[in-house]
Design a protein that fits this description.
- There is one protein chain.
- With 355 residues, the protein is α/β, with parallel strands linked by helices.
- It has 3 domains: 43 residues, no CATH class; 193 residues, Vaccinia Virus protein VP39 (Rossmann fold); 71 residues, no CATH class.
- It is built from 9 helices and 15 strands.
- The strands form 3 sheets. The protein has an 8-stranded mixed beta sheet with strand order 4-14-15-13-12-9-10-11, sandwiched between helices. It has a 4-stranded antiparallel beta sheet with strand order 7-6-5-8.
- Helix 4 crosses helix 5.
- The longest helix has 18 residues.
- The chain is globular and about 60 Å long.
- It binds S-adenosylmethionine.
- S-adenosylmethionine (SAM) binds next to helix 5.
Length: 355
C-alpha cells in the first residue's frame, strides 16, 4: 500500500485500492511493514473466506478476494515486472487459470508436534493446528483426516531444532507410507495445471525437428522429460541435483534419455553440459525459486542453441535472468502465465526465448 506521503508499505490482509488506518510494525533499509488497524473503504472484490483457519494458517493470503481479482493481480504482477525490467514480449497470452479454484493441491507439507497437526505460518515457528484444508484435492483431504485421527503419535514428536516435525505427503501415499522429516522428490503441486504445462511445452516445441538434441535442466524425476519423449524427441540430456529424483527418472526407462546428476549452481555447469551435448539446439529449464543462479558461459558452451523454454515459479528471478539474456541478444517470443496455486500470490511463467 502507498502512504499519502509516497512511502510503500507491506500490509497483510488488504487488497488494492482499499483505504484504511495502519500502524508501522517494522522498518528495513528498503521497505516498511505495517499492521491493519481499521479498514475504511473495502474492495468490491472481497468475499468471505470459506476457510476458518485463513487468518492463523497464512497459506492462502488471497482467499479474501474473488477469482477474477486474484487472476487480475497475477497478470498485473507480471506486467509490473516486465515494465520494471524493460523486458519486451512478442506474444503474451492470458493467465491459464486453475480448473479447480479449491481442492487442487496434490501434495502438502504438514507440521506436527505429535499432538496437533497443521501448518506453520510463513515467517514464524508457530504451529497453527487445522481441522481441514480446502485447497487440498479430495484424496489429500481424506489422507489429512487420517493423519489427524492418528494423533497422538510419539513418532512424530519434534527431535530437531524446530518445535515440530514435518510430514511431506502427496496423493499417491497412504497413511502407512508417511514418514516424519523425510522430503519427497519435487512434484508439481496441481495435477490439472501440470497437464496444462506439459501440453504447453509440446505445443511450443511442435515445429522443432524431433532429431535435435535437447537439454532439460532441473528435470526432477522426469515429469517434463516424459512429455518431451511422448512428443517424439529422441535425444534428451536430463540434468538434476537430487539423486533420488534421478533414480525415479531412470526407473521410467525412457528411450533416448540420458540423465546427469549435476549441481546447476556450480561455476563449471554450462561447459560441462556443453561437452555432454555440444549440438544441443533447445534448452528447457525449470529451476526452483532462485532461478538460474549460474548463467556464466551458457551461450559460449552451447553455440548451436536456438530456443530456450524457461518455466519459472518465481517471476522476480525469471526477470533478473531475462535481463541478462536480453544483453546476449535473446528475446521473449512467447509468455503465458499460469496459476498453479489459487489463493496465493504465486504465479508461474511459461516462456519461450529465441535469439
Ligand atoms: C521446479 S522443480 C522442477 C522439476 C521438474 N521439471 C518437474 O516438473 O517435476 C526444480 C527441480 O530442480 C532441482 N534443483 C534444485 N536446485 C538444483 C541445483 N542447484 N542443481 C540442479 N537441480 C536443482 C530440484 O531438485 C527440482 O527437482
Amino acid at each position: 500500500m502507498t502512504h499519502p506521503d509516497g512511502r510503500v508499505l507491506f500490509v497483510k490482509g488488504i487488497w488494492t485500492e482499499e483505504v484504511g488506518r495502519f500502524r508501522v510494525s517494522d522498518r528495513t533499509k528498503s521497505y516498511e511493514t505495517a499492521e491493519l488497524v481499521s479498514l475504511d473503504e473495502r474492495s468490491s472484490d472481497r468475499v468471505t473466506p470459506p476457510c476458518p483457519h485463513v487468518d492463523t494458517c497464512g497459506g492462502c493470503p488471497w482467499m479474501m478476494v474473488n477469482e477474477e481479482a486474484q487472476a487480475r493481480a497475477k497478470e498485473q504482477r507480471i506486467t509490473f515486472l516486465l515494465d520494471k525490467n524493460g523486458i519486451a514480449v512478442t506474444e503474451r497470452r492470458p493467465l491459464l487459470r486453475s480448473p479447480d479454484f479449491f481442492g487442487y493441491r496434490n501434495r502438502a507439507q504438514f507440521k506436527t508436534d505429535g499432538k496437533q497437526i497443521g501448518y506453520v505460518s510463513e515467517g514464524t515457528n508457530v504451529l497453527a493446528p487445522i481441522e481441514d484444508c480446502l485447497v487440498l484435492n479430495p484424496p489429500m483431504r481424506k489422507l489429512f483426516q487420517e493423519l489427524r485421527h492418528a494423533l497422538p503419535q510419539t513418532a512424530w514428536q519434534p527431535t530437531g531444532r524446530f518445535p515440530w516435525s514435518y510430514l511431506d505427503v502427496d496423493d499417491q501415499q497412504t497413511l502407512r507410507d508417511v514418514v516424519p522429516n523425510r522430503r519427497l522428490p519435487f512434484r508439481q503441486g496441481n495435477t490439472a495445471q501440470n497437464e496444462q504445462m506439459k501440453r504447453w511445452i509440446a505445443e511450443t516445441l511442435k515445429d522443432v525437428s524431433r532429431n535435435v538434441p535437447l537439454i532439460e535442466a532441473f528435470c526432477g524425476s522426469g515429469n517434463f522429460t516424459q512429455a518431451l519423449v511422448s512428443a517424439g524427441f529422441k535425444q534428451i540430456l536430463a540434468a538434476e541435483v537430487r539423486g533420488s529424483a534421478l533414480e525415479e527418472l531412470r526407473a521410467k526407462n525412457m528411450p533416448g534419455v540420458q540423465s546427469l546428476e549435476i549441481n546447476m549452481n556450480e561455476k563449471t555447469v554450462w561447459p560441462q553440459l556443453g561437452r555432454q551435448s555440444p549440438q544441443a539446439r533447445v534448452l528447457i529449464v525449470d529451476p526452483p525459486r532462485e532461478g538460474l543462479e549460474e548463467r556464466a558461459g551458457l551461450f559460449e558452451s552451447l553455440p548451436q542453441l536456438e530456443k530456450i523454454v524457461y518455466i519459472s515459479c518465481e517471476p522476480t528471478t525469471w526477470a533478473r535472468d531475462l535481463k541478462d539474456f536480453q544483453k546476449s541478444g535473446w528475446k521473449v517470443a512467447h509468455l503465458t502465465p499460469l496459476d498453479m496455486f489459487p489463493h496465493t500470490p504465486h504465479v508461474e511463467i511459461l516462456s519461450l526465448l529465441t535469439r
